[in-house]
Amino acid sequence: MWSGRFREPLDAEFERWQRSFPFDWRLLPQELAASTAHAKMIAAAGILSADELATIERGLAAIAAKADSLGDAWLRSNEVAEDIHHFVELTLTEEIGPLALKLHTGRSRNEQIATDMRLFVRGQIDAITAALKNWLTALIEQAESAGDAVMPSYTHLQRAEPVLVAHWLLAYVEMLLRDADRLADCRKRLNLCPLGSGAVAGATLALDRTIAAKALDFDGPTYNSMDATSDRDFAVEFTQTLAQLGLHISRFAEELTLYSTAEFGFLDLPERFATGSSAMPQKKNPDLTELIRGKSGRLLGASNSLMMLIKGLPLAYNKDLQEGQEPAFDAADTMRGMLAVLPGFTRALRFRYEQMFAASQLGFLNAMAAATYLVHKGVAFRKAHEKVGNAVRYALEKGCELGDLPLEELKQFGDEFAEDFFPAVTLQATLDCHDVIGGTATARVKTALATAKERVALISTAGGTYALA
């Protein structure tokens, strides 16, 4: 592709080592789409005749058909192409002859890879968002199925207050809805077309860049050629967003791992998503949730790799950027793999509501409700906290719960205690005293569940044409 300048052939080992085709072959759909858009743009500039444009379009379509027919093995077996751009040029030449060489008029591989990667990331965002929406639906289905079931909540891994199981599940729905928003934001920012940027300073032909942008469903052309050819912050943002999503998934996986232990006993892991031990016949291991935790670290690694790659690069394009493709590919593959199994796993979960209910009755989870009771009696909260704390210590010594203490014994901690204390600290009353937006009161959770369903339904899965490659 640059032999006119060079007298020596490439060192054979270096040539094999520096090729990106062994991994960027997967950008074929994006490269064919971008090449078709570029052909239309240079045809409008008078570089291609109508017949030549039609021939090039037919040739590019023939390559796509051959890839569909022969599969990845046909692509990956090529040992000549340096990169996906070179592969398409070589293959198009086989299809239509020397006319294929006119296609590179007015463009550079620098803008080609920038365009291909934007198309790839955009398509992956659409696919991941659709999969995330499916998992969100599964979480909401579980929350609906839980009904009024109760479980302990925890701070510092110590029992804190009772909450509805649905409320706990909706906490993850909130996290994932923010992740869906982040993906949408990333998609919006990257959706500009680099074609026409040339190698660094812009195309040397009077190209109408809006032609390519419209053909590829971009919102418009990029604004600066140097930025367009060297920018990869869209890939950084994409991998960072996937890393954040992975952290949320990992937290969910960690809680399920804990809750499935005999020590908690809140959850019976579905057997089709678990494995046993090769040594201990009784074991059922939470492989799915453990792998999810591990893969979240892989996502963080991809994001960090990209940032380290870019942090010291001068403008504009540098060959270092070739190393940015594999972390983006791996992060997308990893997240799509996680989201492929999570909906089915989530729908198969079976919670032990009776054990959760029993755990919610023990450990003074109504202490906050007891303090609130005293506040309604006119006691300052700090004093109410102290009085209830003393009552808790007394109950611990007696080996009972707050609600089991006789009224005459409660009164030693404050004259404000009366018969109406006992209905104020039942499990239902303890739940329903959290009657604020975002609280675990039964009516509030019912409203939150309906709202969550509406918000999930509004998630846009644009379904880009160049999504999966």
What do you see in this structure?
- The chain is mainly alpha-helical.
- Helices cover 61% and strands 4% of the residues.
- It contains 20 helices and 4 strands.
- Helix 3 crosses helix 7 (109-146), helix 4 packs across helix 6 and helix 12 packs antiparallel against helix 13 (325-348).
- The longest helix has 38 residues, at 109-146.
- The two termini are 26 Å apart.
- Residues 464-469 have low confidence and may be disordered.
The overall average pLDDT, rounded, is 95
Tell me the radius of gyration.
30 Å
Number of strands: 4
Instruction: Please summarize the sheet with the most strands.
Output: 2 strands, antiparallel
Uncertain runs with pLDDT below 50, 5 residues or more? 464-469
Number of domains: 3
Tally of alpha and pi helices: 20
Bulk shape: elongated
Structural class comes to mainly alpha
Which CATH class of the largest domain? Mainly Alpha
**What name does the CATH topology of the largest domain carry?**
Fumarase C, Chain A, domain 2
How large is the share of residues in beta strands?
under 5%
For the termini, the CA-CA separation is: 26 Å
The helix/strand series, from N terminus to C terminus, equals HHHHHHHEEHHHHEHHEHHHHHHH
What CATH architecture label of the largest domain applies? Up-down Bundle
- The CATH superfamily of the largest domain bears the name Fumarase/aspartase (Central domain)
Helical amount:
55-70%
Q: Give the spatial strand order of the biggest sheet.
A: 1-2
In short:
The protein contains 20 helices and 4 strands. It has 469 residues and is mainly α.
